Amino acid sequence: MKDSKTLLLNYLASVRDPERAASLFAEDGVFELPFLRSLGVEARYTGRREITALVRKLIEIYPNFSFAPDDTRILIETPDKTFAEYVGRGRAAATGRTAHHLFTGYLVAKAGEIKLLRESFNPLTMAQAQLPNGVADIGPPGDEVHSF
After folding, report:
1. Which residues are CB-neighbours of 115 under 8 A, at least 6 positions away?
2. What number of other Cβ atoms are within 10 A of residue 45's Cβ?
3. How would you list the strands of the sheet with 81-91, edge to edge?
4. Nearest in space to 58 (alpha carbons), one of 71, 76, 45
């Protein structure tokens, strides 16, 4: 049975293959990216179908996106929980700009599958890479601003 660290490393290695990446999750597994909400993007994906679609969208936005094994630091590790930092790089299809994302990831494993993967990264980098005028293309804030 795969432990949490192995599952995280396998996920990072398979991110270019959405079906394979999603197959590491439990049938009811959850992928959360809470700070995407600040860009108006859904923050929670449940089940392999939604997770496959999410990873497919990532590859559509950054066609050459990948995580480098040398840029992965496991910070906390138990058999069922891992917390790590890792770097993802990709050239944005919309602008040709290369984004260098520092992620933190918290993974919970159960029965050899990913039950939860919660990632955080700086959405400002995403906006700067994807939008023609960077963050200038994000409309003015309303009365409330959410980062989660």
Report:
1. 25, 26, 29, 30, 108, 109
2. 22
3. 44-46, 25-32, 113-120, 98-110, 81-91, 66-77
4. 45
pLDDT 10s digits, 65-102 = 999 999 999 999 999 999 999 999 999 999 999 999 99
Q: Which ranges in 14-146 belong to alpha helices (H)?
A: 18-23, 47-61, 123-130
pTM of the model: 0.92
Contact by Cβ (8 Å): 55, 67: no
Phi, psi of 56, rounded to the nearest 5 degrees: -60, -40
Radius of gyration of the chain (CA): 15
Measure the CA–CA gap between 36 and 126, rounded to whole angstroms: 9
pLDDT in tens, 100-138: 999 999 999 999 999 999 999 988 898 899 999 998 888
Rounded Cα distance between 17 and 13, Å, is: 9
Name every residue whose Cβ is closer than 8 Å to that of residue 107 and which is 6 or more positions away in sequence.
4, 7, 8, 11, 81, 82, 83, 84, 114, 116, 117, 118
Q: Residue 112: left if φ>0, alpha if ψ -120 to 50, beta else—which one?
A: left
